Amino acid sequence: MPPCWCRFIQNYGMAPYAAVPLVLLIGCCLGFLNGSLVTFLHIPPIIATLSTLMAFKGAALVYTNGYTIPLIMKFMTMGRGFVGPIPVPTLIMLAVYGIAFVVLKYTMLGRIAYGLGGNEEAVHLSGISVRKARLTIYTISGFTAMLAGIVIASRLSSGQPNVGDGVELDAIAAAVLGGTSIFGGVGSVWGTLIGAFILVVINNGLNLMNVSPYSQFIARGAILAFAVAINSMKSFRK
Predict the structure, then answer these.
(1) In this structure, are residues 146 and 78 in contact, taking their beta carbons and an 8 Å threshold?
(2) What is the model's pTM?
(3) Residue 125 to residue 122: CA distance in whole angstroms
(4) Which residues contact 12 (CB under 8 A, 6 or more apart)?
(5) What is the DSSP letter of 107?
(6) Crossing angle (nearest 10°) for helices 108-118 and 130-156
(7) How many Cβ atoms are within 10 Å of 41's Cβ, its own excluded?
(8) 44-88 per-position pLDDT tens digit
(9) Is residue 104 a contact partner of residue 113, using CB atoms and an 8 Å limit?
């Protein structure tokens, strides 16, 4: 909910970098809520996250009354700033990917995350608290989602309650194109990054060819279906 970050700054006079930790904490709480729905109410993850997606979007619209909340120029470093020739959003992205790579490859939490995707029962029988691990993973997810929202709000110089519609499908497509299994337990951070680059190249190519935005939705849907089909065939052969 990037609009709340903008409102903390614009309406309540809070310094932007004081507002950032507060909003990231809100993101953690929302991620924990998602994890709680899955862990304690046993709602399928895809249903739980889609439900809260709609609820959070509605909350953003109620919070802003559907209006855009502007940001003044000096608060846009996270979205438009540079460190030398490198944009700040790129540095944030590389930092997040680097930390995620280390966590998934070299820490117990990373092994548990793969285990939960591959065989949750085996993780449970190993004496590991599945509930605690799942709640931690969802909380981290909420943190990174809110961080992305802050960067987007800073880049757009405003908090827009409708921004990001449909991005969840692009995220799924990028992950699957990068080799992540929709059945869980298989995937890599750098593969997902490559998948995202492939998706961006395709989108830019469609724009350069002056393909209608409406037709682009068809193309992106076909790409997602193709990637999932390839993924499913690989899993079936195994």
Answers:
(1) no
(2) 0.85
(3) 5
(4) none
(5) S
(6) 100
(7) 8
(8) 998 999 999 999 988 888 888 878 877 765 566 788 888 889 999
(9) yes
